[in-house]
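Notes, Module 5: Reading structure tokens.

Key idea: the token line is not a picture. It is a compressed description, and you learn to read it the same way you learned to read a sequence, by spotting repeated patterns. We will look at two proteins. The first is printed below with its tokens.
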Amino acid sequence: METVHNILQAVILTISGMGAVIVVWGVIEALAAFIGLKFSSAKEDPVSKSESIRQRLGAHLLLGLEIFIAADIISSAVSPSWEKVGILVSVVGVRTVLSYFLRMELKQGMH
């Protein structure tokens, strides 16, 4: 039983790590694009370009949040105490609300 617990802990850590990599990747990509925009001599519309940067960052954040939620759900299966379930409900609730509003903002930006 302990082997299964250790395997699930490794899976949770791996999934959480993937979520973190996606978020960090998005931030780095957005910063690089923003710095490129600021030092660019091209006659691009800075507002539309920065909106595009924000949209891509939002997509990374949204995917990262969804992956973190998946890790939290798996985590509750590893040690299902009432305290852990309560914490999971709170964390998933906050992340779901964040995901919802981020998704709505991304949809508004596309129109």
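Here is the second protein, with the sequence above and the tokens below, as before.
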Amino acid sequence: MNRFPKAARRAAPLRLSLLLAAVAALALVGCGDKKKDKAATQTAAKVNKEEITVHQINFVLQQQRGLRPEQAEAASRQILERLIDQELAVQKAGELKIDRDPRVVQQIEGAKREIIARAYLERVGEGASKPTADEVQKYYDSRPALFKERRVYSIQELAIEAAPDQIQVLRDKLAAAKSLEDFVAQLKAGDFKFTGNQAVRAAEHLPLASLDAFAKMRDGQATFTPTPTGAQVVFLAGSRMQPVTLEQSKPAIEQFLLNERRREMAASDIKGMRAAAKIEYVGKFAEPSAAAPAAAASVAPAAVAPSPAPEPQAAPAPATAASGLDASSISKGMGFK
């Protein structure tokens, strides 16, 4: 004989269902806590009520070029401290309503436009094709001073203050000087103010536009260039050959040509959009420029007018290129004191 009432037997399955539901709910809560704990690990620090996340640190870390893996941990902590200082400043600025200042709002909008425009042009450039082996070879052959005839230059520079009517005098003094030391002595005798500097630079560290001129110079020669404040004299104290092969320079050449192709694609895209758009100049800008009206079309914000592709570096310079010539091979007694 069953000792439980009929009503109690009916309630038993219901109680069992409730118990199972409760266990399941607890399990879900436990999973939720685990997810919450996992998400919490993304928080690197709390500044008052605001959080600084690992994602923010990693974003800044990605902008650090040349950072070695073993330096990442220390760099992350330094970045976190800077982000904490930044967050404190942002919070205080919010209290003072600085974020509503018209100048600040304008800067924020300008930065936003710059970022969005640059992102668009980068996307346009993604369609650029990789340079072919023939294109890489052609560029390598066209730049002997940068690659197969690459030199490391030991140079001495003088920045001289002079009036326009003294430029020819300086040029004549340099032409008559037997050495740079002799030229420096003449500058001192003429009460010219000047500063001097000496450095060792590989070909890829010189401006690409002036590299061919440097390549034609012989050791001991000097160049004279007028400047807005006077003149600059560059003396080639010494140099040594340190060529790089096509295989060594191939990655740098490929990247340079790819960047150049992307820049051209972005410029062409902007040109097409300008042609299709209705652009109306207003006020004083509606009047033709007295300088060069056609040039106005080429003036644009930095994000809209892509910057020129960086100059290709022949190859990672060997350690000897960084150290340069021995001190004894650099001319002495320039008298810069």
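Summary for the second protein:
- The CA atoms of residues 91 and 97 lie 10 Å apart.
- The longest strand covers residues 230-241.
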